[in-house]
From TrEMBL:
Transport found in the keyword field: no
Domain called Type II secretion system protein GspF: residue spans: 10-129, 208-327
GO cellular component terms attached to this protein's record: plasma membrane
Localisation per UniProt entry: Cell membrane
Coiled coil: none
InterPro entries (alphabetical): GspF/PilC (IPR003004), T2SS_GspF_dom (IPR018076), T2SS_GspF_sf (IPR042094)
Regions crossing the membrane: 106-128, 148-174, 308-329
Keywords, sorted A to Z: Cell membrane, Membrane, Transmembrane, Transmembrane helix
Family that this chain belongs to: Belongs to the GSP F family.
Protein name, as recorded: Type IV fimbrial assembly protein PilC
């Protein structure tokens, strides 16, 4: 995420444009207020004043995500610029809100696991070796459970030293051979993670396509531009395959049904929109549904993640405690003898 809030910047652009100020003047005002993004805002202002295309000016500056720049095409077909910025702000705000919620919810499990891992290292490196020396001095060896713990620790160190580098090398080779397209296709099959990514991509596609259709853009161009907002290459290229059929006058819903990753309700809503002439409205509805579905999946996943993390750490800690107590008991019994 950028150091400045993209959705707030878009909202301010919308409000200032609505007040009647020209875009260059609005950009100049915001460049003074947004120190983090000042240089990029001024780059956009200069490009526009030099007569450069609006979409290209924003895209070149990398001020906003690419799909926001694609939405600006609607401004060239009659849609008011302030309205586009406002809608883009709402969409980005929802995305950033979900991202912040997920990040915030993952902080606690990450801290718990991190400190637990450090505790395990301290026990294995400093406490258990001393206990072993004491036991050996009494002619005894470590209990079986403690030995298993040490074997596991050695395996973990070898995994960190060799396993991760091997995994990274193999991953780089796989990406070079198969490409990111195949990686993105596989990610979509991962439960929860793939579904959430899919819903976010299709929600952006639906929202952007609907906005362009409302602005008078023809369906093939709207679908193509909306597809550029997708971050998953498999989804993006699949939607691009549909364009040639749309240019021949074929149905959008018919070809959406060909792809197994497209939710059935999306295809059905598109079909209803095509039959009733309300395709933009149906796409907006589909976008809202997918955002809510992603929200539900995130909430349900995070609800289970915290107790499962605590349970896992509890089991690990309990095993370590037992593994440390057993040698101490052995030492105690040896001293009594």
């Amino acid at each position: 995420m950028k150091s400045y809030r993209s959705h707030l910047l878009l909202k301010e652009l919308s409000v200032l444009l609505k007040s009647g100020l020209p875009l260059p003047k609005v950009l100049e005002l915001l460049s003074r207020q947004k120190a983090e993004a000042s240089q990029k805002i001024l780059e956009v202002k200069k490009s526009i004043e030099d007569g450069e295309d609006l979409v290209r000016a924003f895209s070149k500056s990398k001020l906003f995500p690419e799909f926001v720049c694609e939405m600006l095409i609607a401004a060239q077909t009659g849609e008011s610029l302030e309205k586009i910025f406002s809608k883009a702000s709402d969409l980005l705000a929802r995305i950033e809100e979900f991202r912040a919620r997920v990040t915030g919810a993952l902080i606690y499990p990450a801290l718990v696991i991190g400190f637990s891992f450090l505790s395990v290292i301290v026990v294995l490196e400093f406490i258990v070796p001393k206990l072993r020396k004491i036991l050996l001095s009494f002619g005894r060896d470590l209990p079986f459970l403690t030995k298993v713990l040490l074997w596991g620790a050695k395996f973990l160190w070898w995994f960190l030293l060799l396993g991760i580098p091997i995994f990274l090398v193999f991953g780089a080779w796989w990406i070079k051979k198969k490409g990111w397209y195949e990686i993105h296709r596989i990610i979509l099959k991962i439960p929860v993670v793939g579904t959430i990514w899919l819903y976010f991509d299709l929600s952006r596609w639906s929202y952007t396509t609907a906005l362009l259709l409302e602005s008078g853009v023809v369906l093939p161009r709207a679908v193509a531009t909306g597809g550029n907002s997708c971050q998953n290459l498999y989804v993006k290229e699949s939607l691009e395959e549909i364009i040639k059929f749309l240019e021949e006058g074929q149905s959008l819903s018919r070809h959406l049904r060909r792809y197994g990753f497209v939710p059935e309700f999306l295809s059905e809503l598109v079909a209803i929109g095509e039959e009733t002439g309300t395709l933009p409205e149906m796409l907006h509805n589909a976008s809202d549904i997918m955002i809510k579905e992603a929200d539900y999946l995130i909430e349900r996943t995070l609800k289970w993640l915290e107790p499962l993390t605590i349970l896992f750490i509890g089991i690990v800690v309990a095993y370590i405690v037992i593994s440390v107590i057993l040698p101490i008991m052995e030492i105690s019994s040896s001293v009594k003898l």
